[in-house]
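Fold this sequence, please.
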Amino acid sequence: MLERPVDIFNKEKHPMRKTFAVSLMLAAALGLAACDKKSEDKAQDANQHAEQAQEKMSEAQDKVNDAAKENAEAAKAQAESDAAAAKEAAPATPATGS
């Protein structure tokens, strides 16, 4: 007598295979359902971390803007200082009276 390869769950030698497979799938499904709360918590934590990262990026941008302003002020002061030094270094033209 030939056995069909598709009929592995209904062999007379192992009638519990189908029951075992179904109970194993049920246990796996319940295990995944129990993990659902953790994934919600992780999503909330991820949102909080994203908000904190956004705030830190905003603070960093403010610091960069402040540094750019200070750099511009320093460059202006340096230019004024260079102009004053150049004016002092230029030879004075003598006043001629005619």
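Residues 1-34 form one domain. The chain has a mean pLDDT of 79.
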